[in-house]
Amino acid sequence: AVVGAAALGAVAVYRTKRVVDGQRLRRRCLPEALVDDGIADACELRVVAVRIHDVRLAPTAAKQVKLRVKFGRPGFSVSGDTDDVPVPARAGGRGQREEGLDLGATCLFYADARLSPRLRFRLLEAGGSRSPLGEAQVDISGLSSQVVEHQGLALMKSGARAASCVGHFSVSVSAHTVPKGHLRMCLAQVHAQLQGAAVVVPSASPAEGVVVEDLEAKQLRGGRVRAATRSEKR
């Protein structure tokens, strides 16, 4: 009887711990969850991984640009920015073909069920107007650990008469469930930074391109990553 009572007590404590972890997670973004000592290392986190690559840009007057990733609907989202990247000077202007830019990035977000399953991308002039140079979006409903590739997405700029394409890029998206403790260990190995509402992997990391086995053996690749993320109310 004593053993049975002890076992029931252990189960009750375990269930209570899971409830507490769940309650704390609902009030946390991914970086906060990773550093919150009140959330057990064994607690499983659902993470959305967004990798941007193959960015190509048409001639633009902007000197430096960055790409912002937004997870969620307008007015209730979290976002991340790539590093500012200089735009190579090109003679001739309009009519020239698109050229590649080192705007690759990997952004990790906590898969908060309150956020709409939508990714929105904005090409911005670094240090310039908040008005985007180009925009795109992707629906990620039904996301799983299987990597979904979206290739050749067009960055469109709205105009007074018609929309115009200012560039193209590709994005790989997947979702993974991983214990908090092991995720922290893997991220430490790639010198990840906790910024705002996302986790980022600097491009200078010596372990760039590392395979994080706990993310279901999918590659967590840092391009030129610096996802400066924050909640936005617009």
Keywords:
234 residues; alpha+beta; 13 strands; 17% helix; disordered N terminus
Walk me through this protein's architecture.
The protein is an alpha+beta fold and about 230 residues long. The protein contains three helices and 13 strands. It has helices at about 1-25, 30-35, 180-190, and strands spanning about 45-55, 65-75, 75-80, 85, 100, 105-110, 120-125, 135-140, 150-155, 165-180, 195, 200, 230. The strands form two sheets. Strands 1, 5, 6, 9, 10, 11 and 12 form a seven-stranded antiparallel sheet that branches. Strands 2, 3, 4, 7, 8 and 13 form a six-stranded antiparallel sheet that branches. The termini are far apart.
Summarize it.
The protein has 234 residues and is of the alpha+beta class. Helix content is 17%, strand content 38%.
Rg, rounded, reads 20 Å
Gap from first CA to last CA: 59 Å
Q: Class by helix and strand content?
A: alpha+beta
Mean pLDDT: 74
Helix content: 10-25%
Amount of beta strand: 35-45%
